[in-house]
Amino acid sequence: xxxxxxxxxxxxxxxxxxxxxxxxxxxxxxxxxxxxxxxxxxxxxxxxxxxxxxxxxxxxxxxxxxxxxxxxxxxxxxxxxxxxxxxxxxxxxxxxxxxxxxxxxxxxxxxxxxxxxxxxxxxxxxxxxxxxxxxxxxxxxxxxxxxxxxxxxxxxxxxxxxxxxxxxxxxxxxxxxxxxxxxxxxxxxxxxxxxxxxxxxxxxxxxxxxxxxxxxxxxxxxxxxxxxxxxxxxxxxxxxxxxxxxxxxxxxxxxxxxxxxxxxxxxxxxxxxxxxxxxxxxxxxxxxxxxxxxxxxxxxxxxxxxxxxxxxxxxxxxxxxxxxxxx
Length: 327
Prior knowledge:
Blueprint: H1 2-28, E1 31-35, E2 41-48, E3 51-55, H2 62-72, E4 78-82, E5 89-91, E6 97-99, E7 110-116, E8 128-131, E9 141-146, H3 148-162, E10 179-181, E11 199-200, E12 204-208, H4 210-219, E13 226-229, E14 239-245, E15 256-259, E16 273-276, H5 282-310, H6 321-326
Parallel strand pairs: 3-7, 12-14
Antiparallel strand pairs: 1-2, 2-3, 2-9, 4-9, 4-11, 5-6, 7-8, 10-16, 13-16, 14-15
């Protein structure tokens, strides 16, 4: 009897160990990075029913990368976008020709593209995304655990190369909402620097003015503009831009941009997000209505004035002076 009880306990314990190992291994083997210089960077691949698949980099941003690094267990440091070499040749800042030879990667099928993570999910495949199409511009990648010092060096290198004059902005929105954090998806998006370094400098905004929100929302397809708001900062997401000032600007490239030094906001995070207007706001509508009514009144007044001018004037009967002299 005691032997049977001991065997039962042993089988239960063994089953528990096997189940626990399966859960840990399944979680650990659900996602991986391939092709990087360390285990903290590389192309993102997900395990779908036992088959490793790549992710297309279309609309891939820092929020998606945040989820990948969290799922991999990297809790420290910044997260950045990591990409393969796009061209085989390019020029350094000193105009010396450099050859970039991307590491060849085996062919993998694509699981999906256009991932729309909000940055708080625990797994990449829990985010909304589109299934793979027949065409993919390239594989998505991440760089996890980037220190503030490393980020500062990457930022300084990018700014010294092209000055950081042209900056692109995106507003990842979710569940049909028009509210989101403002991100600069790639500091080199307009003037790429084809170097062996594959980490692309990305990040959020510390503070921006009202006109910046109007212009950014307009570029995102909201013709009615928007307003600046504050959303809680997300850990591990560096801030690329310290201040974005667009007073007097009609295009985003005309705005004044001040960059951070190491991804930090010395004055704290203030207006880092926008709420884009999906319809004409009351203040704008009221102004247009006032202009419309004023125009109608002006037209009525003008028509009345014209009618008065065209009307034949009455003849007044005035006694002749001579008639008074003869009486």
